[in-house]
Amino acid sequence: MLTFKPTTRSFILTEKQVWLFITVTLVLLQFSALFVPILEPDGALYAGISKTMVLKHDYWNLYADGHEWLDKPHFPFWVVAFSFQLFGIHTWSYKLPAILFLLMGAYYTWRFAFHLYGERVAGWAVCILLTAEHLVISNNDVRAEPYLTGLIIAAVYHFYRRGILLGALFTACAIMTKGVFALVPIGAAIGGQLLFTRNWKELFHVRWLLAFLLIAVFITPELYALYRQFDLHPEKTVFGTTHVSGLRFFFWDSQFGRFMNTGPIKGSGDPFFFLHTVLWAFLPWSVMLYTAVVLFIKKWKQQQEYYCICASLATFLLFSLSRFQLPHYLNIIFPFFAILTARYILSLHTEKGLKFFRVTQYTIIIVVAIAGIVIDLLYKPAMHCAWLLLPAALILFYLLLHYWLDKSTREAVFYRTICISILLNLYLNTILYPDMMQYQSGSSAAFYANTALPGKTIGFYAVNSYAFDFYLKAPVARYDAATLVTPAIIFTTPDDVTKLQQQGYTCTVIKSFPHFYVSKLDLPFVRKATRAAALGERQLVLVKKAVL
């Protein structure tokens, strides 16, 4: 029970009431970027694929860039297409399902942690999960990871509770979201627990064979879609060649091929990439997470469960060894990170341990606050004066929590860390990113064309933009020097306009748009003084053949 006396009157608030208030705020935070335009490239690409599904009424075949597309499985596209059918094709109807799946992940994080460690660890784990920086960012730059985050922890929970049917269903949906490597965190969690507790009878129980068979049955829609689109049509050209098997790509090339860098999609990996990525991706809890993992390993034989550590370490190791790495890959194991971190923080009882927690988190709070102010002063968004609202909000949060909680307690440190995360991400999602999206030329040009050139077919010439393709409410063509038929309206670069003029075309620039890939921020762009030099340019141009 927590008490405070701001006046002569006394108020009594339970920690559960504080937690409920904060958790509701965190849930609402996830929706704060719901209407911010979809980021290129991947988010807008996935949105465009789902849009094409709906417009073509074809839910088996995937198309992108005007041709057959073989990369990711179908499940997220089916979910988004269903959302588009219900609500129409909008930014928010693309992002909404992903946020709901993420919140499903938070729900199952609570349930799993509750059964493992009790209500308090469960509550704190949810707060940690919903403030993990990259998880909140991913609600703006929506890809497949929010779906996986919910599906994987749900599958582990149901297998833990021996709910084979639901466990297999969630596992199958995870496989149909990212491929067979989705089995790694699920299998490592369950298998690791049974192995390290030496529960051989349960490890070799027939129910796991049943689970495998159910998973095989539940993924048949994905297998059928791939077989129908590619294996039945060996004449199709994919990755520059024919006789491409969609089933082989699904089971091997998209997973093991990327891991070993032998498939059609290649990358270059660094075994230490995710070690430093977690430092910012799991902010403001990354130091506590690393400490929790180290201490867990040091006291390995004394632990009461191994689900979370096995799921986390197995997946972390797999991604670290892979030759294809992106920061958002780790989001899928953040629920397990959150449980490990919450358990560690709540296990601190010595003055030395609590002091380490206080000093670390207050340092992070200060660094995050300074970073937010520096970013605002460098970038200078149109709503620049809005940052003045943040100190006011910070003071409000501080006063509330000052009276709710003694500033020296573990609870005070925990909830104030959450508050700084809320403030930072509200700034990012409601001020910074909305302002930056004016430099995403594809969406800006599409919005303009929908108003000034309604219904007009516009073609790409020597450029591509998934955001333009998604947001334009008219057909999109694709031209090159051989296929350009005039008169035509094209979306292109100034250099290519010059080339067309040299070839004898008359080009009239309708409107120019500043261009930058907002998902790949760098200092020259963020700094307003150097931004102009970092920007490219895209143009809507009316092209006609010159009359001789």
Structure notes:
- It is a single chain.
- This protein has helices at about 15-30, 40-55, 75-85, 90-115, 120-130, 135, 145-160, 165-180, 185-195, 200-205, 205-220, 220-230, 245-260, 275-280, 285-300, 305-320, 335-345, 350-380, 390-405, 410-435, 440-450, 465-470, 495-500, 525, 530-535; strands spanning about 1-5, 10-15, 65, 65-70, 460, 475-480, 490, 505-515, 535-545.
- It is of the alpha/beta class and about 550 residues long.
- Helix content is about 60%, strand content about 10%.
- It has a five-stranded mixed sheet. It has a two-stranded antiparallel ribbon with strand order 1-2. Strands 3-4 form a two-stranded antiparallel sheet.
- The protein has 25 helices and nine strands.
The fraction of residues in strands falls at: 5-15%
User: Mean pLDDT across all residues, rounded?
Assistant: 89
How would the global form be characterised?
globular
Structural class: alpha/beta
> Quick one: how many beta strands?
9
**Order of strands across the main sheet:** 6-5-7-9-8
Low-confidence stretches: 1-11
N- to C-terminal separation?
88 Å
Radius of gyration of CA atoms, rounded to a whole number: 26 Å
What is the helix fraction of residues, given as a range?
Answer: 55-70%
Number of helices: 25
| Main sheet attributes: strand count, strand direction, barrel closure | 5 strands, mixed
Q: What is this structure, in a nutshell?
A:
Helix content is 61%, strand content 8%. It has helices spanning 15-29, 42-56, 75-87, 91-117, 119-131, 133-137, 145-160, 164-178, 183-196, 200-203, 207-218, 220-231, 246-260, 273-281, 286-298, 307-321, 334-347, 351-379, 389-404, 410-436, 441-452, 466-471, 494-502, 523-526, 528-534; strands spanning 2-4, 11-13, 63-64, 67-68, 458-461, 476-479, 488-492, 505-515, 536-545. Strand 1 (2-4) and strand 2 (11-13) form a beta hairpin.
